[in-house]
Write a structure and sequence with these properties.
It is a single chain. The chain is α/β, with parallel strands linked by helices. The protein contains 16 helices and 11 strands. A 9-stranded mixed sheet has the order 1-2-6-5-4-3-7-8-9, with helices on both faces. Helix 2 packs across helix 14, helix 7 runs parallel beside helix 8 and helix 8 packs parallel to helix 9. It is globular, with a radius of gyration of 21 Å. The protein starts with 9 loop residues before the first helix and ends with a strand.
Length: 393
């Protein structure tokens, strides 16, 4: 594997190789990866340990895959991409890793990033909505995003067609104003791929004035299962989530549900009772989301948190404002690991229903469904006939 690096960067190259290799180990989910880090320290130390020690944390098969070393063919495109100026890999041990993201279940161990990294430390608000948006919906998204950016919020969205794109464009329009918050695009592909292709110019503008991030390795194409994973990051980065337009089957409602589970505020803009893309927003309002018809409604709810982040940022400075990320990560992921372990233990290896899991664990149905989704995406469980779930491996 030949990557052009100076001698001073060889240690960084070794660290990047180990982070990438570990995250790409077949069968190794995020929680198990964090357990390895808690047990052995850095990814380099994980690779340097022996089979006996690894078997105390992961299965025999996964331990053997780790000891075989990083899959060079799989991670080479990412290393080549990272060798280009302006491209970054943010790990759980990095000072730029967003503190709010540490609070969610299953935080991504790594994030690929391109653009202005300091935005990850700014107060963020998620804005999402329908891909099949109305002209009025897109105007609302642009207007709200511009106004919120001018107030100091960084607008986070998924760069999809419709509302997402309008939100990014609105936030970028506020860039000429001092202190504007700009925008972060969280995408469901590798950062070497622009999806949808119609947003190529928008992607370039976001990189120049904002930030693009992804947890997916370079070369990852657009896949349906990528987007629920992406959605948890959109809401996880943010103090609140604004749904502009959505039908009742929209992925935006998944983002809103994840925001609620993560303890974030959820806002929704109402629309015509005859419009399909308003029905999702109306449903959210019935379920407790705050109805908004101006940015004042959002500032009223989040202004205190916004001011706290400004004060903290001003008092501590860009770098010192970050706490000991590794210590914070350990505390948060221990809670997540414990919860996942309880759920997997309760499942056993027989098919089990949602109601049975609620009885066995004492967790809420909403929390169990969220955890089951993440476990399914990690390949640890599968859904079978009759609405039951079964543990794999």
């Amino acid at each position: 594997m030949m990557i052009e690096q100076s001698d001073a960067n060889q240690q960084d190259l070794a660290s990047l190789t180990c982070w990438l290799g570990l995250t790409q180990t077949q069968g190794l989910g995020n929680q198990s990866l964090v357990l390895l880090l808690k047990a052995f320290g850095t990814p380099q130390q994980v690779y340097a340990t022996n089979h006996t020690a690894l078997k105390q944390v992961v299965s025999i098969e996964i331990a053997s895959r780790i000891l075989a070393g990083p899959d060079e063919a799989r991670i080479l495109p990412s290393l080549e991409w990272l060798a280009i100026a302006g491209n970054h890999l943010i790990t759980l041990a990095d000072e730029h890793y967003p503190k709010l993201l540490l609070e969610i279940a299953n935080p991504p161990p790594i994030l690929f990033a391109k653009g202005h990294l300091h935005l990850l430390g700014k107060p963020c608000i998620a804005m999402v909505g329908s891909r099949s948006s109305t002209p009025q919906g897109e105007k609302n998204a642009e207007d709200f995003a511009k106004a919120l950016s001018e107030q100091g919020f960084t607008v986070v969205s998924g760069m999809a067609l419709g509302i997402d794109g309008a939100a990014h464009r609105g936030a970028l329009k506020a860039q000429s104003i001092k202190g504007a918050g700009s925008t972060i695009a969280v995408v469901g592909t590798g950062l070497d791929i622009v999806y949808p292709s119609k947003h190529r110019d928008l992607a370039h503008a976001i990189v120049n004035q904002g930030l693009m991030i992804s947890e997916f390795i370079i070369g990852t194409p657009s896949k349906p299962q990528n987007f629920p994973r992406r959605n948890r990051i959109i809401s996880g980065l943010s103090l609140g989530c604004l749904v502009v337009e959505a039908n009742v089957q929209s992925g935006s409602l998944i983002t809103a549900r994840l925001a609620t589970e993560q303890g974030r505020e959820v806002f929704a803009i109402p629309g015509s009772i005859h419009s399909p893309v308003a029905k999702g927003c109306h449903l959210l309002i019935k379920q407790g989301a705050k109805l908004v018809d101006s940015t004042h409604d959002i500032i009223e709810e989040l202004g205190f948190a916004l001011e706290n982040m400004r004060v903290e940022h001003s008092a501590a400075g860009e770098t010192a404002a970050q706490t000991d990320t590794q210590a914070a990560t350990a505390a948060e992921v221990l809670r997540v690991i414990t919860k996942e372990s309880a759920l997997l233990t309760a499942m056993g290896y027989d098919a089990v229903s949602l109601d049975a899991l609620a009885t066995l664990t004492g967790l809420s149905t909403e929390m169990i469904m969220s955890e089951l989704l993440l476990l399914e995406l990690d390949g640890k469980i599968t859904k079978i006939a009759g609405g039951k779930y079964q543990r794999l491996g």
